[in-house]
Specification:
Distance between the termini: 17 Å
CATH topology of the largest domain: Alpha-Beta Plaits
Strand order of the largest sheet: 2-3-1-4
Radius of gyration: 20 Å
GO molecular function: sequence-specific DNA binding
Mean pLDDT: 94
CATH architecture of the largest domain: 2-Layer Sandwich
Organism: Tritonibacter multivorans
InterPro entries: ArsR-like_HTH, AsnC-type_HTH_dom, Dimeric_a/b-barrel, Tscrpt_reg_AsnC-like, Tscrpt_reg_AsnC/Lrp_C, WH-like_DNA-bd_sf, WH_DNA-bd_sf
Keywords: DNA-binding, Transcription, Transcription regulation
GO biological process, one term: response to amino acid
Shape: elongated
Strand content: 15-25%
């Protein structure tokens, strides 16, 4: 089911993407609404699953995470059980901050955070590769991030 969005909904979405901590009063004023209709619109988008939550963005370096990498993973096979086990492994590993099934030579791309390159190597060797689910992996260290988060485009 597709949620119908009007210009005011898009304005509210842009505002919450820019500042998820904004007060209802601030959102209402910026969108040209009173608080009650603003709250109803946001509640409708939350209930529809369009707004999936609110999070704080943290600086990984200040958390001691100085090694970020994209790891391309090819599974040993494409059996349903293998894919389900890999999904469980990914879900349990907090160092894996993103995972996507992709087209091309790899099956998945993971974004992994670690303290340093040695910590990343230990994690890969003792975790991902030791699982018996991975046939091949290729790691690309992130040297510099020029864009780490941006609002989703709100197209008509």
């Amino acid at each position: 089911m597709s949620l119908k969005l009007d210009a005011t909904d898009r304005k509210l979405l842009a505002l919450v993407q820019a500042d998820g901590k904004a007060s209802l009063q601030d959102l209402a004023e910026a969108a040209g609404l009173s608080p009650s209709p603003c709250w109803r619109r946001i509640k409708r988008m939350e209930e529809a699953g369009l707004i999936r939550g609110y999070v704080a963005r943290l600086d990984p370096k200040l958390l001691g995470l100085h090694a970020l990498a994209y790891v391309f993973v090819t599974l040993v096979d494409h059996h349903e059980d293998t894919m389900a086990r890999f999904a469980r492994l990914v879900g349990q590993e907090e160092r894996i901050v993103e995972c996507a099934s992709v087209t091309g030579s790899a099956d998945y791309i993971l974004k992994v955070a670690a303290k340093d390159p040695e910590d990343l190597e230990r994690f890969l060797m003792r975790g991902i590769l030791a699982s018996g689910l991975v046939r091949e992996s290729q790691t690309h260290f992130i040297l510099r991030q020029t864009k780490t988060r941006s609002p989703w485009p709100l197209l008509d």
